Amino acid sequence: MKLGILFSGGKDSCYAAYLAKKNGYEISCLISILSENMESYMFHTPTIRKTEIQAKVMNLPLIIWKTKGEKEKELDDLKNAIIEAKKKFGIQGIVTGAVESVYQASRVQKICNKLSIKCFNPLWQKNQFELIEELIKNKFHIIITGVFAYPLNKKWLGKKIDMNYIKEIKILNEKYGISPAGEGGELESFVINCPMFSRKLKIIDKKIEGYKNSWRMEVDVE
């Protein structure tokens, strides 16, 4: 079965793609939605513009679709992007990196139903600590590119998601209820390397902006 990956460049969409390929599915393309609204309910990542470079090292074609990011209306843009992937690459299904967001998963499922294609959510309801441990075990090199909740702050930007991260986030989870995988919108991530990459990406520059407990980091990679 030919599948398209809803791809943000973060840990969940990358891992979902990895699992799909590992289970014998054919990945025909990646689909990235470039939102003008950084507070979008559906699409939000500080490094969405870097998926083009990730696609190159994954040797996969990439469809980039722009949206203004208006709630609900942005779903039409997602639908059009999937239609484009269906026409151009003959995809028969969509893979998402949804873990706990019913809002996101249900809306993608609805679009897939209308287009008569399958929807796969390989990470759905997975224990978040187990998810992070699997990523580390499978040699995913991930950095944090956005934090949006107390007590996370600027110092977390660029932090690697590794065993030390698990120790730190466990404390914050117990004390403040911070989601280990950022499923409450607490953090965003970017994959620098993984088994699907032909090489590790190199960070050559970065731009940080924000205030208090809301910070974003744009990275330039090669």
Task: Tell me what the structure shows.
With 222 residues, this protein is an alpha/beta fold. Strands 3-2-1-4-5 form a five-stranded parallel sheet, with helices on both faces. It has a four-stranded antiparallel sheet with strand order 7-6-9-8, with no helix packed on it. Helix 4 links the parallel strand 4 and strand 5. Helix 3 crosses helix 4. The mean pLDDT is 95.
SSE arrangement:
Blueprint: E1 2-6, H1 11-22, E2 26-35, H2 51-57, E3 62-67, H3 74-89, E4 93-95, H4 102-115, E5 118-120, H5 128-137, E6 141-147, H6 163-176, E7 187-193, E8 203-211, E9 214-221
Parallel strand pairs: 1-2, 1-4, 2-3, 4-5
Antiparallel strand pairs: 6-7, 6-9, 8-9
Helix pairs in contact: 3-4
Which tags fit this structure?
33% helix, Rossmann fold, 5-stranded parallel beta sheet, 222 residues, 4-stranded antiparallel beta sheet, alpha/beta, 6 helices
**CATH-defined architecture of the largest domain:** 3-Layer(aba) Sandwich
Question: What is the radius of gyration?
Answer: 16 Å
Taken in chain order, the helices and strands follow as: EHEHEHEHEHEHEEE
Poorly predicted segments: none
CATH class of the largest domain: Alpha Beta
Q: Describe the biggest sheet?
A: 5 strands, parallel
Classify the helix fraction into a percent range.
25-40%
pLDDT averaged over residues: 95
Proportion in β-strands: 25-35%
Tell me the CATH superfamily of the largest domain. Answer: HUPs
Q: Give the count of structural domains.
A: 2
At the third CATH level, what is the topology name of the largest domain? Rossmann fold
How many beta-strand runs?
9
Q: Strand pairing plus helix content: what structural class?
A: alpha/beta
Termini separation (Å)?
32 Å
Strand order in space, largest sheet: 3-2-1-4-5
Q: What's the helix count? A: 6
What would you call the shape? Answer: globular
